[in-house]
Write a structure and sequence with these properties.
binds copper (II) ion, 331 residues, five-stranded mixed beta sheet, alpha+beta, Cytochrome Bc1 Complex, Chain D, domain 2, 3 domains, 8 helices, 38% helix, Immunoglobulin-like
């Protein structure tokens, strides 16, 4: 029994084998997720092909067999067939349930934090017509995303203007990038190389030129690249400069200013008690809202005196501020 494949594994092996001749038609496969998506796709195409051929074949078969003038038995037309009805109800039911759970599994994995957490968070800001990528501990890149192989990378994305869509075919991932909110994706590349990035939401005149390249490096090469870029200034450093120049430190400073304001060290990921009862989790969306619309969620025990910074900070500066706040650890 031990050496036998489970039905699931057998199906998996069959799909793997069936995918091979079509590999040239697909983008390169850069992650386990991409491989899983392809298997699912092959299953759907295979199933549709099977039933299309079956139905087309039966149409032709019956058309020929019962064509006018043909000698066929037309005396006892069947009125019902219980077995047939059960079969044609059960088979589609089972198949649609399989499709649902298989698809849901792929989808959920894409939106659930991997065991062991993310290795790094990278901020992506889309704007007409380019991708700006901010590495908290490294440089800002335009139209490129460097990432290490074998490490789960989380992308936190937003747009400066209209809706864009960050799409990396080799990873089989894409997601809308929407002004005014953060969306995220994650991936773990299984090999090194360069792969195209596209915008796949029509976003104006130069949409077709809103391209980028994903550069997957070995962890050592990536660390070297990051360190070299960091020399020219990191997102965290830019965020710290903004924190000073916008006067945030006047209230949130370590010594405490004239106005009592919450300590921001260690804030990221923490539950924050709110004046209006309940808690908010200090994630990227909460920090952004706290800075642009401080009145919406007031921290319990503080007066709503923080001024709004809406209109003073663009989305790139916002992710720099967030990267900085995120880097503040409790002493
Ligand atoms: Cu776009």
């Amino acid at each position: 029994m031990k050496d036998m494949l489970s039905p699931w594994q057998a199906l998996w092996e069959l799909l793997r084998w069936a995918k091979r001749p079509f590999a040239a038609l697909f983008p390169p496969v850069l992650s386990e997720h991409a491989d899983g998506v392809d298997s699912f796709y092959m299953f759907l195409v295979g199933m549709s092909t099977f039933f299309s051929l079956l139905i087309a074949g039966l149409i032709v078969f019956f058309a020929v067999r019962y064509a006018r003038g043909r000698k066929a038995d037309r005396t006892r037309p069947p009125e019902s067939n219980l077995v047939l009805e059960i079969v044609w109800s059960t088979v589609p039911l089972v198949l649609s349930v399989v499709i649902f759970f298989w698809g849901a599994r792929l989808y959920l994995r894409l939106f659930t934090e991997p065991l062991g957490g993310y290795g790094e968070v990278v901020y992506v800001v889309g704007k007409q017509w380019m991708w700006k990528v901010q590495h908290p501990q490294g440089p800002m890149e335009i139209g490129a995303l460097h990432a290490p192989m074998g490490i789960p990378i989380r992308l936190v994305m937003t747009s400066q203007d209209v809706i864009h869509d960050f799409s990396i075919p080799a990873l089989r991932i894409k997601r809308d990038v929407v002004p005014g909110r953060y969306t995220s994706l994650w991936f773990q590349a299984t090999r090194t190389g360069e792969f195209p990035i596209y915008c796949s939401e029509y976003c104006g005149t130069l949409h077709s030129q809103m391209l980028g390249k994903l550069v997957i490096q070995s962890p050592a090469a990536y660390a070297a690249w990051l360190a070299q870029g960091a020399a020219a200034g990191t997102a965290i450093q830019a965020g710290e400069r903004l924190f000073t120049s916008l006067g945030c430190g006047g209230c949130h400073g370590a010594e405490g200013g004239a106005i009592r304001a919450p300590q921001l060290a260690g804030i990221f990921g923490r539950p924050v008690p709110l004046q209006s009862d309940g808690f908010a989790t200090a994630d990227e969306a909460y920090l952004r809202e706290s800075i642009l619309f401080p009145g919406r969620k007031v921290v319990a025990g503080y007066a709503p005196v923080m001024p709004t910074f809406a209109g003073q900070i663009n989305e790139e500066q916002m992710v720099e501020l967030i990267a900085y706040l995120r880097s503040l650890r409790l002493p």
